[in-house]
Amino acid sequence: DAGVIQSPRHEVTEMGQEVTLRCKPISGHNSLFWYRQTMMRGLELLIYFNNNVPIDDSGMPEDRFSAKMPNASFSTLKIQPSEPRDSAVYFCASRGNGVSDTDTQYFGPGTRLTVL
Amino acid sequence: GESVGLHLPTLSVQEGDNSIINCAYSNSASDYFIWYKQESGKGPQFIIDIRSNMDKRQGQRVTVLLNKTVKHLSLQIAATQPGDSAVYFCAVLTYKYIFGTGTRLKVLA
What pLDDT does A1 receive? Predict the structure, then answer.
Protein backbone atom coordinates (compact mmCIF):
# COMPACT_ATOMS: atom_id res chain seq x y z
CA ASP A 1 0.00 0.00 0.00
CA ALA A 2 1.29 3.48 -0.81
CA GLY A 3 0.14 4.87 2.49
CA VAL A 4 -1.61 8.20 2.89
CA ILE A 5 -0.85 10.49 -0.04
CA GLN A 6 -0.87 14.26 0.21
CA SER A 7 -0.37 16.94 -2.38
CA PRO A 8 1.23 19.30 -2.86
CA ARG A 9 4.20 18.63 -0.57
CA HIS A 10 5.08 22.31 -0.49
CA GLU A 11 2.94 25.34 -1.18
CA VAL A 12 4.02 28.97 -1.15
CA THR A 13 1.33 31.55 -1.71
CA GLU A 14 0.55 35.15 -1.05
CA MET A 15 -1.80 36.42 1.56
CA GLY A 16 -5.37 36.50 0.32
CA GLN A 17 -5.00 33.63 -2.12
CA GLU A 18 -6.99 30.44 -1.97
CA VAL A 19 -5.11 27.30 -0.98
CA THR A 20 -6.32 23.74 -1.53
CA LEU A 21 -4.61 20.78 0.09
CA ARG A 22 -5.40 17.26 -1.03
CA CYS A 23 -5.35 13.88 0.62
CA LYS A 24 -5.85 10.30 -0.47
CA PRO A 25 -6.31 7.97 2.51
CA ILE A 26 -5.18 4.39 2.69
CA SER A 27 -7.52 2.23 0.69
CA GLY A 28 -10.19 0.66 2.87
CA HIS A 29 -9.80 3.11 5.73
CA ASN A 30 -13.05 4.75 6.75
CA SER A 31 -11.84 7.63 8.91
CA LEU A 32 -9.81 10.62 7.77
CA PHE A 33 -8.23 13.35 9.88
CA TRP A 34 -6.74 16.74 9.06
CA TYR A 35 -4.10 18.12 11.43
CA ARG A 36 -2.03 21.27 11.55
CA GLN A 37 1.43 21.30 13.09
CA THR A 38 3.37 24.35 14.23
CA MET A 39 6.29 24.82 16.57
CA MET A 40 4.19 26.80 18.99
CA ARG A 41 1.09 24.62 19.15
CA GLY A 42 2.28 21.19 18.10
CA LEU A 43 -0.21 18.89 16.39
CA GLU A 44 -3.78 20.17 16.34
CA LEU A 45 -6.75 18.23 15.04
CA LEU A 46 -8.74 20.39 12.64
CA ILE A 47 -11.47 18.03 11.49
CA TYR A 48 -12.18 14.39 11.04
CA PHE A 49 -14.51 12.40 8.81
CA ASN A 50 -16.03 9.00 9.31
CA ASN A 51 -17.46 7.30 6.24
CA ASN A 52 -17.06 10.61 4.35
CA VAL A 53 -19.19 12.50 6.90
CA PRO A 54 -17.63 15.29 9.01
CA ILE A 55 -17.89 14.22 12.64
CA ASP A 56 -15.94 16.82 14.56
CA ASP A 57 -14.85 20.14 13.05
CA SER A 58 -14.40 21.95 16.35
CA GLY A 59 -10.71 22.38 15.60
CA MET A 60 -11.23 24.34 12.42
CA PRO A 61 -9.83 27.78 13.23
CA GLU A 62 -12.42 29.92 11.50
CA ASP A 63 -14.69 30.19 8.51
CA ARG A 64 -11.76 30.65 6.20
CA PHE A 65 -11.09 26.93 6.58
CA SER A 66 -13.29 24.30 4.98
CA ALA A 67 -12.89 20.59 4.35
CA LYS A 68 -14.70 18.14 2.12
CA MET A 69 -14.64 14.43 1.54
CA PRO A 70 -16.66 13.72 -1.60
CA ASN A 71 -15.76 10.03 -1.60
CA ALA A 72 -13.86 7.45 0.38
CA SER A 73 -10.60 8.03 -1.48
CA PHE A 74 -10.27 11.80 -1.53
CA SER A 75 -10.44 14.80 0.76
CA THR A 76 -9.57 18.47 0.47
CA LEU A 77 -8.77 21.17 2.98
CA LYS A 78 -9.30 24.67 1.65
CA ILE A 79 -8.20 27.99 3.08
CA GLN A 80 -9.78 31.08 1.58
CA PRO A 81 -8.45 33.69 1.97
CA SER A 82 -5.10 32.55 3.33
CA GLU A 83 -3.18 34.54 5.92
CA PRO A 84 0.47 34.43 7.06
CA ARG A 85 -0.57 32.88 10.38
CA ASP A 86 -1.88 29.86 8.45
CA SER A 87 1.72 28.91 7.65
CA ALA A 88 2.25 25.42 9.05
CA VAL A 89 2.59 21.80 8.05
CA TYR A 90 -0.78 20.21 7.38
CA PHE A 91 -1.08 16.48 7.84
CA CYS A 92 -3.74 14.10 6.73
CA ALA A 93 -4.16 10.78 8.53
CA SER A 94 -6.43 7.83 8.01
CA ARG A 95 -7.62 5.09 10.28
CA GLY A 96 -8.71 1.59 9.48
CA ASN A 97 -11.93 -0.10 10.35
CA GLY A 98 -10.52 -3.57 10.61
CA VAL A 99 -10.49 -5.74 13.66
CA SER A 100 -6.77 -5.43 14.31
CA ASP A 101 -6.11 -1.73 13.79
CA THR A 102 -9.36 0.03 14.49
CA ASP A 103 -7.80 2.90 16.38
CA THR A 104 -4.38 3.37 14.78
CA GLN A 105 -3.94 6.47 12.67
CA TYR A 106 -1.46 6.52 9.80
CA PHE A 107 -0.12 9.86 8.70
CA GLY A 108 0.74 11.23 5.31
CA PRO A 109 3.99 13.11 4.61
CA GLY A 110 2.35 16.50 5.10
CA THR A 111 2.03 19.71 3.10
CA ARG A 112 4.26 22.56 4.17
CA LEU A 113 2.30 25.76 3.59
CA THR A 114 3.95 29.16 3.58
CA VAL A 115 1.76 32.22 3.25
CA LEU A 116 3.71 35.38 2.49
CA GLY B 1 -9.45 20.22 30.04
CA GLU B 2 -7.76 17.41 28.22
CA SER B 3 -3.99 17.61 28.20
CA VAL B 4 -1.07 15.44 27.38
CA GLY B 5 2.38 16.51 28.44
CA LEU B 6 5.93 15.30 28.21
CA HIS B 7 8.47 15.62 30.97
CA LEU B 8 11.42 16.70 28.81
CA PRO B 9 11.48 18.62 25.56
CA THR B 10 14.93 17.22 24.59
CA LEU B 11 16.66 13.98 25.52
CA SER B 12 20.31 13.29 24.64
CA VAL B 13 21.45 9.68 24.80
CA GLN B 14 24.74 7.99 24.02
CA GLU B 15 24.59 5.56 21.13
CA GLY B 16 24.03 2.07 22.45
CA ASP B 17 22.38 3.21 25.68
CA ASN B 18 18.69 2.80 26.42
CA SER B 19 16.32 5.74 26.02
CA ILE B 20 13.23 6.44 28.07
CA ILE B 21 10.68 9.01 26.95
CA ASN B 22 7.82 9.86 29.25
CA CYS B 23 4.31 11.14 28.80
CA ALA B 24 1.62 12.14 31.28
CA TYR B 25 -2.07 12.33 30.49
CA SER B 26 -4.97 13.77 32.39
CA ASN B 27 -8.09 11.85 31.46
CA SER B 28 -8.52 8.57 33.31
CA ALA B 29 -11.10 7.49 30.72
CA SER B 30 -8.41 7.30 28.04
CA ASP B 31 -8.29 3.78 26.69
CA TYR B 32 -5.81 3.72 23.84
CA PHE B 33 -2.28 5.08 23.66
CA ILE B 34 0.12 5.42 20.75
CA TRP B 35 3.73 6.43 20.34
CA TYR B 36 4.76 8.12 17.10
CA LYS B 37 8.19 8.97 15.74
CA GLN B 38 8.59 12.02 13.54
CA GLU B 39 11.74 12.62 11.55
CA SER B 40 12.52 15.98 10.07
CA GLY B 41 10.35 16.75 7.06
CA LYS B 42 8.17 13.67 7.50
CA GLY B 43 4.84 12.81 9.00
CA PRO B 44 4.48 11.02 12.34
CA GLN B 45 5.19 7.33 12.00
CA PHE B 46 3.43 4.76 14.18
CA ILE B 47 5.82 2.93 16.52
CA ILE B 48 3.80 1.02 19.06
CA ASP B 49 0.47 1.18 20.85
CA ILE B 50 -1.11 -0.13 24.00
CA ARG B 51 -4.65 -0.43 25.30
CA SER B 52 -5.72 0.39 28.80
CA ASN B 53 -6.24 -3.25 29.71
CA MET B 54 -2.49 -3.80 29.44
CA ASP B 55 0.46 -2.32 31.31
CA LYS B 56 3.30 -3.36 29.04
CA ARG B 57 3.80 -4.12 25.40
CA GLN B 58 6.99 -4.91 23.53
CA GLY B 59 8.03 -4.46 19.95
CA GLN B 60 11.33 -4.61 18.19
CA ARG B 61 13.73 -2.69 20.48
CA VAL B 62 10.80 -0.69 21.87
CA THR B 63 8.67 -1.19 24.94
CA VAL B 64 5.69 0.85 26.06
CA LEU B 65 4.73 0.93 29.72
CA LEU B 66 1.39 2.20 30.95
CA ASN B 67 0.70 3.15 34.55
CA LYS B 68 -2.98 3.99 34.77
CA THR B 69 -2.78 4.75 38.48
CA VAL B 70 -0.62 7.80 37.92
CA LYS B 71 -1.69 8.33 34.29
CA HIS B 72 1.79 7.90 32.93
CA LEU B 73 3.06 6.39 29.72
CA SER B 74 6.64 5.72 28.72
CA LEU B 75 8.51 4.58 25.66
CA GLN B 76 11.73 2.66 26.10
CA ILE B 77 14.15 2.24 23.22
CA ALA B 78 16.83 -0.37 23.72
CA ALA B 79 20.35 0.08 22.32
CA THR B 80 19.60 3.51 20.86
CA GLN B 81 20.94 4.03 17.37
CA PRO B 82 21.61 7.19 15.32
CA GLY B 83 18.54 6.38 13.24
CA ASP B 84 16.41 6.77 16.35
CA SER B 85 17.08 10.51 16.39
CA ALA B 86 13.69 12.14 15.93
CA VAL B 87 10.82 13.76 17.81
CA TYR B 88 8.64 11.30 19.68
CA PHE B 89 4.97 11.99 20.40
CA CYS B 90 2.55 10.20 22.58
CA ALA B 91 -1.10 10.27 21.57
CA VAL B 92 -4.00 9.47 23.84
CA LEU B 93 -7.44 8.45 22.65
CA THR B 94 -10.46 9.19 24.75
CA TYR B 95 -13.28 10.42 22.55
CA LYS B 96 -10.66 11.94 20.26
CA TYR B 97 -6.91 11.93 19.89
CA ILE B 98 -4.82 14.29 21.97
CA PHE B 99 -1.14 14.60 21.08
CA GLY B 100 1.70 15.49 23.36
CA THR B 101 4.05 18.30 22.42
CA GLY B 102 6.89 15.93 21.59
CA THR B 103 10.34 15.04 22.92
CA ARG B 104 13.35 15.43 20.68
CA LEU B 105 15.71 12.48 21.02
CA LYS B 106 19.33 13.18 20.13
CA VAL B 107 21.67 10.25 19.82
CA LEU B 108 25.29 11.08 20.57
CA ALA B 109 28.02 9.15 18.78
Answer: 63
